[in-house]
Amino acid sequence: MAHCKSEQDDWLVVYLKYLLFVFNFFFWAGGAAVLAVGVWTLAEKSGYLSVLASSTFAASAYILISAGTLVTVTGFLGCGAIVREQRGCLSLYFCLLFVIFLVELVAGVLAHMYYQRLSDELKQHLNHTLVENYGQPRAAEITASVDHLQQDFKCCGSNSSADWQHSTYIRSQEAQGRRVPDSCCKTVVARCGQRVHPSNIYKVEGGCITKLEQFLADHLLLMGAVGIGVACLQICGMILTCCLHQRLQRHCY
């Protein structure tokens, strides 16, 4: 039968417990930040998903949301394990911390990797989307995304409004004489895209690619920083959990 000394006889156990409680507070705060960044990223850029060739950006956000949710559950388990001083619960808590650490690290690395090739992907894919897919019967989601993009960023065309001259939609009868989509107009009214004077449509240097690239880059850097930052914080939690687990083993005899 195992015998355990009182907590007064082992001040280190008490000290480690308080440290883990403090860690859990910051762990919950970090988890809330991870969850918030993931949700915010999806909400902010949900209208642009269709113009992105890769799903890596969305995958990083979903991973952060999953990790943030798991953090909440793990935090409750951690508090229970610390209060009860159960080594089995502490072992489970450590394993969950390690899993979350890996998940958030993967999300951070994915965001960083996608950031490195973001510019090339946009240059290759966005212009093709505008020219080939915009306004087509089976591409309603893409059309809505491009319209949303041009209105939000106050831009017109991939690199400039001249890109629309090669668009399948603009060259078709459905365009009704438009030279650019109506979403290029500063004030959107029916068939306003027939007039391409700078007073009527957005003329932005670098076009929508420059604006979208900066927007996505800012989000990716934030996602990567939060994911990797919280993952590093969890290393401290895993070390403290191991120390408390080992001390409890020595504490009981």
Molecular structure report:
The chain is mostly helical. Helix content is 67%, strand content 0%. The chain contains six helices and no strands. α2 runs antiparallel to α3. The chain is rod-shaped, with a radius of gyration of 26 Å.
Brief summary of the model shown:
It is built from six helices and no strands. It is mainly alpha-helical and 253 residues long.
Strand content: under 5%
Helix content: 55-70%
Mean pLDDT: 78
H and E string: HHHHHH
User: Can you count the helices?
Assistant: 6
User: How does the overall form come out from the CA principal axes?
Assistant: rod-shaped
Largest sheet: none
Question: How many distinct beta strands?
Answer: 0
Q: Structural class of the secondary structure composition? A: mainly alpha
Low-confidence stretches: none
Main features:
253 residues, mainly alpha, 67% helix, 6 helices, rod-shaped
Note the topology.
Elements: H1 11-45, H2 56-84, H3 87-116, H4 118-133, H5 140-153, H6 207-251
